[in-house]
Write the structure tokens for this entry.
Amino acid sequence: MIGITSYGAYVPRLRLSRVAAAQANAWSNPGLMAQARGERAMANWDEDSLTMAVEAARDTLEGRASADISAVYFGSSTHPFADRQNAGVVAAALDLPESISSADLGGAQKAGTAALIAALDRVAAGRPGEALVVAAEHRRARPGSAQELQYGDAGAAFTVGSTAVIAEFLGSHSVSVDFVDHYRAAGQAFDYIWEERWLRDEAFQKWVPAAVTAALEQFGIAAGAVDHFVLAEPVAKLSALVAKRCGIADAAMSDSLLGVVGHAGAAHAPLMLASVLQKADAGQIIVLVGFGQGCDVLAFRTTAALAALPARTGVAGSLKRRREEKNYPKFLSFNETVALEKGLRGEANPQTALSAMYRNRRMLFGLVGGRCTKCGTAQFPAADICVNPSCHHQGPMQPYRFADEAAHIKTWSADWLTYTPDPPAHYGMVEFKRGGRFVADITDWDLGKVEVGQAVRMVFRVRGRDAQRGMVRYFWKAAPLAGAGEH
Amino acid sequence: MSKGIRDKVAILGMGCSRFGERWDMGAEELMVESFTEALGDAGIDRKQIEAAWLGSCMDEVNIGKSALPASMALRLNNIPVTRVENYCATGTEAFRGAVYAVASGACDIALAIGVEKLKDTGYGGLPGLDGGSLPPLWWPNLSAPGVFAQVASAYMSRYKVPRDVLKRALAEISAKSHANGAKNPKAHLRNAVSCDTIMASPMIAEPLGLFDCCGVSDGSAAAIVTTPEIAKSLGKHRDQMVTVKALQLALSNGSEGGYNDWDGSYIHTTRVAAQRAYAEAGIRKPRDEISMFEVHDCFSITELVTMEDLALSPDGGAIKDVMDGFYNADGKIPCQIDGGLKCFGHPIGASGIRMVYEMYLQLLGRAGERQLKNPRYGLTHNLGGFPHQNVVGISIVGRYQ
């Protein structure tokens, strides 16, 4: 048996109020108010598809070893790099061994399901180890557009393997159709979109249901036997049309998450699947459809092992961890769709030393420091000579990863002087319970709620963006755990 | 155990430029201003200077790299000139170079000159602090107020001090320096400011407001040093001679920033350097023996904890001493009698020497309106870097005995 062995999800904490966004633009387009309900997930300024992929993958790997991961596939249409492997950075942030295969899949909204199929095919081909599939999207839309309200930022991840399978893979069926409801040319910031009637009538009433029916026939699954129908509809109510045409029961319709997350592009079908897995019972049939210039249809049957998975954040936990954002200009600034004044300090922009980045890649991406082989002191970064003043042992240290270590804030400040896209810049001494400390950026803070002793979780984030050279610099930051202001 | 520097080196002459936003002058002209005063005070010809140390910190502005700008601006006699840089403790580093040169006997007369031309950036505060290739990849975008504000968070946490109590004490510290600076014709900020105004000033880095931050200034300071014997031969009377009693430097080795021991509420290296300096100068009870001092009050919180780090106030007791006026001009141990970094200003490379300049003037009875009565020992404390990794320079000067 092969199939999904674990799942995880990540929805950024900030949720843009659609009312706030629609109201800001209603003077220009009063029709937006018709969509002014609920909220959409909004990446913090220091999040992108890659950082969200890392968080979803960490959720997936919660409570299990990652040493047997042999491949990483990263599906997205918003990879931060066009030519630097994004999946490789994800693997480095997870501190996976370098002896793995990795690939980015993109170019369509079905890149998430394509990545899942690639992983399943790899395992089916008998390659050793498990494959990690991540899908994440940071979707930008033109200010004042309907898509700004409809899109959302999120990530989901799965491991695929042949032991301890939680959802058995029953088969996949794909069609490729150059049906263009929207597109984004290379180098363009925003999608170009046609009316929804075109999408609804020509795709979701015609070839999408045909593909689903063909798939079910191929899998030998009766439409009435489907327990969870997961179709990431670009706009509301389209999947119900497909289900009806295919004979799938209303009760099988899964939560579209559009009202609370928005549509997370290539990550949306994986996100919905992760949500379903968090709720599903053993022995249930799940049909997953990824849409975008064709569609991928996959079927799974949950197993008894699903209930035995360790607890994780998943979609449900991510949705609970939220902070409403009503500041629409902040949303625009975070997405760099408006350029706010940065001040002269914002001009400082050193070149990234690629050699230093490579030399220190386990430190910078894996948050790996060292543990003294003599006194056992964990320290960051690793050094030739132990930092413990009563030790100072010289010799190689054991690699020691801090990413999942319990930590708290030892000292902090909120700095209005230094440049940050989200002032005031919060940073401080972060101390790890089992040893080690360093001065780190603090992210996902609530103004006035940061304090000494506060527990934090280390998260992989954007340290800075070098627009002049197109570099995104990543490092780890401290995010307060369950701070006030979260609901 | 070495015998230390005590009484081996005398200050022959000192000079200090007016500090402030010197839009009219570059670093070269500022150096000439302090050097000219020092040379006149020493009563020697520039050709008698055998070696020089230049302190300057920010190469982004200022004079760039190397000691050439000093050698050229001062038209020195092709002597060895060395540029030193050690964050905000740069000035003391330059002074140490000259003092050590004379103490070693390698030369008879040496010059220390510090300069900083900060007001060529277009914005307030200092340029960014994260040099090198690796630090920008993982350090936060640290600002000076942001890093020193960390100490305030730890201090409040350790001593259970409510924020408003701390803010009030910090305001008293700044108000005292403003009162002192108002009497100093060379100071950058020469206005008395009330505690209410200070506490209402805009937030810079929680909990530090604008008036908790020192002036960002242009300026230069210089010292010409020699041995007491040579000073005597040049006509300096014994009772008009100021000598170096102690000169210590302590640098972090990574333990505060990397080992879970230091609690962030004090500056570890200040404590180390202070104890060494007291021992070198033969001072046993600093609270009773130090007459006056200039500390590195880059921010009011730094001054507060330095009172404790120098063992002048007991741990957790600085707020009480500050509120009691212990460190005011009319208090037991006046601190920042010249206005400090806060109001005299902080041209980085010059600051350590500027502190010595004030102690020198006070010891010689030349401090004018702010002259203290019969001071014996003056201490300077110069701090560069961040609370968790820094450079501390401490000097103690006094009359030659």
Remarks:
- The radius of gyration of chain B is 19 Å.
- DSSP finds 15 helices and eleven strands in chain B.
